[in-house]
Specification:
Distance between the termini: 56 Å
Number of helices: 4
Strand content: 25-35%
Radius of gyration: 20 Å
Helix content: 10-25%
Structural class: alpha+beta
Oligomer: single chain
Order of helices and strands: HHEEEEHEEHEEEEE
Number of domains: 1
Shape: globular
Length: about 200
């Protein structure tokens, strides 16, 4: 419309330009390579890749202790930029591996109580005040109110918290985390929609 140009032509040209620049998600093989390179960078032979899932916003990866089978911590790989970072609850609530996500450190409050189970040397024991059964009950109560129609499916213990996988209509839907000491719930809203599992080797 400005400068005597055809407004329709400008609009169409702008639309073509926008969609031609829309990034393409990285494929599973690339995401797996990023995860494996990150794992190698930790120089910790006791860890291996566990759950590996693709969502509309990112890839979700959990790292597991080989000997104990205990979940260590969780990271996200951006589907478009290839960048990776630790999950928020894995930084804030992880009592053993909280500083492994790129050396980031954080202190804070957890809904009115001091984060004594956080990254800076809190309890790393496998024993938490809240059991896995109680964590599932907390998750179910939360889902009934906030995400009715979804169900708590599987609970995975980390150091300081649990991550609970959720389902809807019998299909994998998402996940939430329950603090193992306070019972606080942190739903993983950052994933987007579930797409698929990433097949292992």
């Amino acid at each position: 419309m400005m400068g005597g140009r055809n407004s329709a032509g400008n609009m169409m040209g702008g639309m073509r330009g926008y969609y031609s620049d829309t990034p393409t998600p990285i494929p599973h093989d690339d995401a797996r390579e990023i995860a494996e390179d990150y794992l190698k960078s930790l120089n910790n032979s006791e860890l291996e890749i566990g759950e590996f899932e693709e969502y509309s916003h990112n890839y979700y990866v959990s790292l597991v202790e080989k000997d104990s089978g205990r979940r260590a911590f969780e990271i996200l790989i951006d589907r478009y930029t290839r960048s990776y970072r630790p999950e928020p609850q894995s930084m804030a609530w992880n009592g053993k591996y909280g500083t492994m996500g790129g050396g980031m450190m954080m202190r804070g409050k957890m809904r009115g109580r001091s984060n004594n189970q956080g990254m800076m040397g809190g309890p790393s024991s496998t024993e938490m005040n809240i059991s896995s059964v109680e964590a599932m009950e907390i998750a179910r109560d939360f889902l009934d109110v906030v995400y009715p129609g979804t169900e708590a499916d599987e609970v995975l213990a980390y150091y300081g918290y649990y991550t609970v996988m959720t389902t809807k209509d019998g299909e994998h839907y998402g996940m939430l985390s329950v603090n193992g000491y306070s019972g606080d719930v942190w739903y993983h809203t950052w994933h987007g929609s579930f797409i698929s599992e990433v097949n292992e080797h």
